[in-house]
Every structure is written in C-alpha cells, then in structure tokens.
Write a structure and sequence with these properties.
Chain A has helices at about 15, 40-45, 70-75, 90-100, 140-145, 150-160, and strands at about 1-5, 55-60, 80-85, 100-105, 115-120, 125, 130-135. A 7-stranded mixed sheet of chain A has the order 4-3-2-1-5-6-7, with helices on one face. Chain A has 6 helices and 7 strands. In chain B, about 30% of the residues lie in helices and about 15% in strands. Chain B contains 14 helices and 18 strands. The chains are: A alpha/beta, B alpha/beta. At the A-B interface, helix 4, helix 5 and helix 6 of A face helix 2, helix 3 and helix 5 of B. The complex binds iron/sulfur cluster (SF4). Iron/sulfur cluster binds next to helix 10 of chain B.
Chain lengths: ~170, ~425
C-alpha cells in the first residue's frame, strides 16, 4: 500500500526527472538530491524526507522518454518510489528493471494525488475510489532480471557460469 | 515467413536461422559505445566482479568505443575528474576506439562512429546514449541502453534478454523542394507517429527519396527515430552506404548488405510523399508538437544553434553558409555553431563555411554536444526562445526550464538568424 504523492502527464522526459545539468553526478548515493529538480516543491519535499518510502508517482503514457541517462532511475530508486504509468519508454523501463526500481504498467490507471493504492501482481486497487485496474505483467525475460535482484547479480551469475568455457 | 532487417541482424547475431518479432534473443555485440557516462559504466562493471575471484576484463576491447563529447572541454572539476578516471580505465583495458578531446579526431559520438568506419551494415551496435539509433543509417541494428546494461555487455559481449522488435515500414516518395530535406521529413513523421508511436518497435525506411539521400541525411532520420520512441531506425544498406564507407570512412574490407526479405512481416506501413512538404518546426516542449513553418513564422528568437549529432555535418554548415554569405544576423540574435567533429570542422574551415558564418556574426565553437543538453554552455535566459537544429526541445533541455526551444533544419535556422524571427528560407515562401 502506498500513497500517490505526484501525478504527472504523458511524455514525462528524463530531462524532467533528472535535468541534464546534474549529469556529472553519477553515484546512486548522490543522484537522489536532484530528483525532479525543476519541480522545486516536490524536490524539496523529497530532500526533506517528507515523502515516505514506497510512495507512488503516477504517470501517463511514455513515462521516461528521452535520454538513456540511468540517473533518472537511480534518483527515484534512492527515494524508494514506485512508478505506476500507463506506459513507459523502452530505455527507462529497462533501466528500472536493471536497477530494481519498481515500475508498474497499468494502461487504464486512474488516481489522484493523495489516493492510496494497493498494487498486486495482477491489479491496482485504488482504495480511495474503490476502482480496480489491471496491470500488464512484465515479459518473462525482464522478470528473470528482477528475480535475480537486478542486472548486476544476473550478469555476475552468467559470467561465473560461462567463465572457463568458450562462449 | 520472411524477415525484416532488424530480424535478420538479430538472427545472425544470436546464431539462429530465423527470429520473429517478440522472440527473446541474446545477440553478440559488434560495437559498444559510451561517452562521458563511461564513468558510471566503469563503476557498474567493477561491481559485477565483486566477490567473484575474476579479474575485471572487457570481453573484447577492440569492440568498445569511448568518446568524450558531452562536456568538452570539461566544464567542472567533477567532469574533469570523471574524464581522467575514464582515460585511466581505457589505458588499463587497452580500449582501442577511444576519442579524447582533440581537434583532429574528436567529436560527437554519433559522427565519430560513422566517419571512422566503426559501424558496418548488419552490425549490432549498442550505446549508452538514446541517439545510438543514428547508426541504423548504415544498415546496422543500433539501440540505446543504460549504463548498467553496458557494464553487462562489457563483461559478456552480448546484450541480454533482448526482445526482437516489430518493425514499422516507412516508404518515402517524391522529391524535396529547395531548402526542405531529411530534418523536415523526420519531424513530419514524428508529428504523425507521436512521441510514443514507435515505442518498442523498429522503423525501416524505404522508397526513392531515401535511396537518393546521402548518408549524412540518413543519419538525421535514424538519429531522430528515437523521438518517436523507436528502439532502432534502419535504412537498409545500398550503393550509397558502400560509397560512404569506402570514400568517406576509409573502409577497406568486405561489406555485406543486409536487406529485408520480400515477404517480411511489418507491423504497419506508412507512405509519405515529400514533394509538397514545407519546412517543419517542432514547438515547445515536445518533439512531436510539429507544425508547418507557416504556423509559427514570425516567432521572435534570441538564440540560434546549428550543430549536434543531428545537424552538425558538413552539408548542414554548407547550407547555413550559403544563406548567410555576405549578410549579418539580426542584432538581438546570438548564433552558436558547433560542428559535429574535428574532421568536419577542418573541412568546413577549408571550404570557407566557418569564415562566412563568423563574418555574419555567428560564434563557432569546438566540436562536441555544446548547448544541446543544457549542461555546458549556451544556456538561455528566463523567458528566452531558441531555434535549434538539435533533436530535443523538452522543458529544461537547454539548461533553463523557463525558456523555450523550437527545432528546425539548418536552412530554417540560418534564414531565421538573419531575420531575428522564425522565417522560411525560400524567398517569398511562407
Ligand atoms: S549532440 Fe545532443 S543529442 Fe547528440 S549526443 Fe550530444 S547531447 Fe546527445
């Protein structure tokens, strides 16, 4: 269960999530301070720890479009946010899976800021409106990476398996 | 059942006879490109080896390319220190295709790869940059990935769990009017498809207008395919690809052209005729907010930018110089020109284009990404408007969320710099 702390429109770009001028900062320990840096109020709330871990951002279609910058994922992951969107841009979604950011694809989701959402594998239940919305499960290829704990442990496992034999 | 170019390339790279859209494959990577964000890739790469007893070693350093372009010369101690770390890593791993900050062989990654012949038809190219789609202009399957995914490629030499994309076929017919070209075509297409219209899909370009187009124009088309969400934009290789690779990129060895099967299966087919197309402008703050120039002509501008991995090539500078020759840009306009590579810079210098642009009042800057991504230089003031030949106009993209960015071709940018407002480059046209 989590509360919707931010509701966003379609086509939210990685320039909005993590503005390019902070791109010299790469460490996941340092990127969270610049999350949504140009939405100054929301950024201040994040930095002031006024947003509980597990809180939810609801986006429209094509969330995370634009640049491949991974900071746009580590900055959200650092605040332990969950992203529910009608759809995601490919690279952002993949980066989210690789780094273990919780992303949920829910094409019909309806929610307002302040609503409480319960997210299961199959659906989102909006506790505030009582409505339920189906979730699109991740393809199994992506689920395998999540199950391994992210792309780094997943790759480490393959590397160990494959080392010592010609590949 | 036949295969598209994307399917053929991914089948070969995954050692399979046939793949189809939706299959999950693990293709061998022919070229793995990063820029300054290699600093983050290195961290993730070293992390993979934590607790394994294995020495961190790139699977094949000759297939890795690192290019400094996003913040050159470094704008801050932080960037300079990251670049230093990357240089040391390049030396320790023996990475071959490294392009440091140099006036001769430096430049923007999406120009450096083609001009050095690093990309071949049929290759699988990954890059930690969304505009890696550019390299589909040479008939490759090229797509953007994040830094952690690149670390995984460096370790294994393959891209994991790749879903073969469905392909949209775009057939382009007709002949461009004067001062209308590839940038207008791709902006028009993005407007039609919308910013997410090609999400998780490849776009394959066909038709006589594409066959007649030089590689420099094809790079524009594939570069911006990602602005419609495409995983990859691909122009099947042909005679022009071979000409470019032999005579401009110095490629000697064998070149295999990969073309789609006659009975390849496409997700949808879109036909476009360019004969009546007028210059197209992407308006703030999304790339798919595309309008014909007549709808925005007269919009006052403060800054014009000509350059980037989209339109910083020799023919772009040539057209701008032809329009500005002997004239002065408007008093209230700042015009910034940044050639896409050192090679292009020297060629434009030798041909006199840079001198012409400077005499008109433009500032010619060093090759690199410059103001495109809003980190480094050329920021806009509050409430100011830019007209740029780059590929993105998202809010804040050029460094200031309180400014606006319009996108156009170099011809429109040059003509508008003269007037001080968005203007059609053809005399008398609206
Ligand atoms: S010129 Fe702009 S779009 Fe191209 S690689 Fe550089 S920052 Fe990215």
């Amino acid at each position: 269960m989590g509360k919707v702390v931010l509701k966003l429109a379609d086509d939210i770009s990685t320039d909005v999530i993590y503005p390019g001028r902070f791109m010299a900062t790469v460490l996941p320990t340092e990127t969270p301070q610049y999350a949504f840096a140009d939405l100054t109020e929301f950024n201040a709330a994040l930095r002031g720890n006024q947003i509980a871990p597990g809180s939810i951002i609801v986006g429209g279609h094509n969330f995370g479009c634009g640049s491949s910058r991974e900071q746009a994922v580590s900055t959200l992951k650092g605040h332990q946010l969950t992203i529910v969107a009608r759809g995601f841009a490919r690279i952002f979604l993949q980066n989210g899976i690789n780094l273990g950011l919780r992303t949920v694809v829910c094409p019909d989701v309806e929610a307002s800021e302040g609503d409480e959402l319960e997210i299961t594998e199959l659906e989102i239940i909006n506790k505030s409106s009582g409505k339920r919305f189906s979730v699109i499960p991740l393809p199994s290829a992506r689920q395998a990476i999540i199950d391994a704990g992210g792309l780094i442990p997943y790759t480490r496992k393959l590397l160990i398996e494959r080392t010592g034999r010609a590949f | 059942m036949g295969m598209t170019v994307a399917e053929k390339i991914l089948a070969r790279a995954s050692c399979r006879n046939v793949v189809k859209a939706g299959d999950v494959v693990e293709p061998k990577v022919d070229l793995a490109m990063s820029h300054e964000n290699a600093a983050l890739v290195i961290n993730q790469f070293l992390e993979i080896y934590q607790g394994t007893n294995l020495q961190p070693k790139i699977w094949n350093p000759s297939r890795v390319s690192i290019i400094f372009d996003h913040r050159v010369p470094a704008e801050s101690p932080k960037t300079a220190t990251n670049q230093k770390k990357v240089r040391e890593f390049v030396l320790s791993q023996g990475i071959g295709k490294f392009h440091d900050i140099r006036g001769d062989v430096g430049g923007i990654c999406h120009q450096i790869l083609p001009e050095n012949g690093y990309v071949r038809p049929g290759s699988v190219v990954v890059g930690t940059d969304s505009h890696t789609t550019s390299h589909g202009a040479l008939g490759a399957f090229a797509f953007g990935i994040g830094a952690t995914e690149m670390a995984s490629v460096w370790a294994l030499g393959t891209a994991l769990n790749i879903e073969v994309p469905a392909t949209i076929k775009v057939v382009v017919k007709g002949t461009f009017k004067k001062f209308v070209g590839p940038k207008d075509l791709i902006l028009h297409l993005i407007g039609r498809l919308t910013a997410q219209g090609a999400n998780f899909k490849a776009i394959e370009f066909h038709g006589p207008a594409i066959r007649l187009m030089r590689t420099s124009g094809r790079l524009v088309i594939c570069n911006m395919s990602v602005e419609a969400g495409a995983t990859a934009g691909i122009i099947p290789a042909d005679k022009e690809t071979v000409r470019y690779l032999r005579s401009e990129a110095g490629v000697k060895g064998r070149i295999d052209l990969v073309t789609p099967d006659r009975d390849a299966v496409y997700d949808q087919v879109i036909e476009i005729s360019v004969s009546k197309l007028e210059p197209q402008i992407a308006c703030p703050h999304t790339v798919d907010n595309v309008k014909p120039i007549k709808d925005v002509a007269g919009t006052r501008i403060n800054q014009v930018v000509i350059g980037s991995c989209t339109n910083g090539r020799l023919d772009d500078l040539a057209v701008a110089a032809s329009i500005l020759k002997g004239k002065k840009i408007a008093d209230h306009v700042r015009m910034l020109v940044f050639p896409a590579s050192g090679r292009i810079y020297s060629q434009a210098l030798a041909k006199g284009y840079l001198g012409t642009l400077m005499s008109s009042g433009a500032v010619v800057m060093n090759p690199g990404c410059g103001p495109c991504l809003g980190i480094h230089e050329g920021a806009l003031g509050d409430g100011e408007t830019a007209l740029s030949t780059t590929n993105r106009n998202f809010k804040g993209r050029m460094g200031n969320p309180n400014s606006q960015v319009f996108l156009s071709s170099p011809a429109v940018a040059a003509a508008s710099a003269l007037k001080g407002y968005i203007a059609h480059p053809r005399k008398g046209a609206k």
